Amino acid sequence: MVEIMHSNILELHELRENAFAGGGTKRIDIQHQRGKLTARERLHLLLDEGSFEEIDILKVGRGEGVGSYESHPGDGVITGHGKINGREVFVFSQDFTVVGGSLGEGHSQKICKVMDLAQQVGSPIIGLNDSGGARIQEGVDALAAYGEIFHRNVHASGVIPQISCIMGPCAGGAVYSPSMTDFVFMVDQTSHMFVTGPNVVKTVIHKDITSEELGGAEVHASKSGVAQFVYPNDILCLRAVRQLINYLPSNNKQKAPILDLNDPPERTDLTLDYLVPPNPNQSYDMNVLIYSILDGAEFLEVQPHFAGNIICGLGRLGGQTIGLVANQPAVLAGALDNNASFKAARFVRFCDAFNIPLVCLVDVPGFMPGPEQEHGGIIRHGAKLLYAFTEATVPRITVIVRKAYGGAYVVMNSKHIHCDINYAWPTAEIAVMGARGASEVIYRREIDKADDPEAKLNEKMDSYRTRFMNPFVAAKRGYIDDVIFPRTTRHRLIRTLQFLESKKPGRPDRKHGNIPL
Ligand code: HXC
To answer: Which GO terms describe its cellular component (predicted)?
Structure first.
């Protein structure tokens, strides 16, 4: 008996050693030469020291098709759970050194097991992707295996945070799993995502294009909007995932952890009284306000390289995580366009799903005009943002800093779509449109008849500004709950969040709404 035990223990050692060796030193060296870490090295950096507990280290593929599957340690993926700053997360890390990290039945079953456990336990799932895609030798079984993952992605959506790091190739239909998760991180130069690669592009549309040009990190961060974060290497990427997790609750039944950054809630900032320039056509940087009000001036901006006319990100106020959505007057005057609407809508929906209160800072001259935007679907995309804010039941607060014109005023979390508390700075201009456009429409005849039309236009614009373009008209109507001194913004927001904390959202009894996708 003792002898049998002993040999089994020896065998276990051997099997584990084999798993730890991955695809062998030669392939590991190639991985390193390409500036990539191995699947295990990545997990080591992602998780708290010594916290990783592996599941299915001994699992192999089904052993059919070309080659011997028993010789593929872990079937090309390492799965398990560990901690990030003491909080449990589930992980999978594809091992490119083993059959190119390709995904077959066994590989998928391992991923599905940790996805199921993550959802049952109520902890985030983090996937580190580095894979040649469907394992060719497994044929349709490999495709079925992807389907199982997609199914779980959808059912975990809005239940647990799902995070994907693309740290190597991610091609073909495989891209649809990460793209359905909440946040996609990419590593510059070493990660690529595309539905069809450069060879297919060449064959079908006779165009030469590199992997980097087609689906590199920079492309997805700035053009397609697929990636929310890009980092120059694996180490910085994994560190950023840890940072993101710190802002998030573990699941949709919990609130995000409170973290006291030792920043007094009542802190005021006199410089904010001078932020908005006297000339309404002059821009300024909304980041000044953002970094001034947030605890410890810490802000994790989401999609910083995409649709810069709107800023989305996570920060803390009074220790509590908030989702911040702000127009950026320094880019396209802060106008809402297709990309900005899509970016902010998705972010708002994430925050609402995970009990993260929304703070909206408004300086918006309207929707971006022109055929490019109209034909690109500004009606559809703008509606997404309107829908997202309107359906959100988390505490919602808005501060109108300067312009809030027309439909964009209503869309940007206004009182009229049931935002909880709406503040305005004294510099706010709440109106149907800007002074010039409005005067040209309503006083056109008078201006045309005047001896000096330009002087008449200016006179009418002045009168329009005085009558309409201030926050006091809206405050008198109760659409603005208070006009606040800019310097006190942080304190007012924190006090408002405190009293909204016990807000009980009413949800309509329905399967789900039909957001214009
Ligand atoms: C089986 C694969 C594989 C795959 C790579 N390998 N991809 N094995 N199935 N899909 C193996 C290689 O045979 C090789 O094995 C090892 O992994 C490393 O691959 P290399 O080609 O040497 O690496 P590299 O030069 O870096 O090229 C990486 C690559 C290339 C660009 C990913 O391997 C490649 O083009 N692979 C095929 C990609 C692909 O077409 N996948 C299917 C996409 S469609 P050895 O033993 O030599 O080390 C898809 C559908 C999903 O995924 C559908 C979901 C619904």
So the answer is: acetyl-CoA carboxylase complex
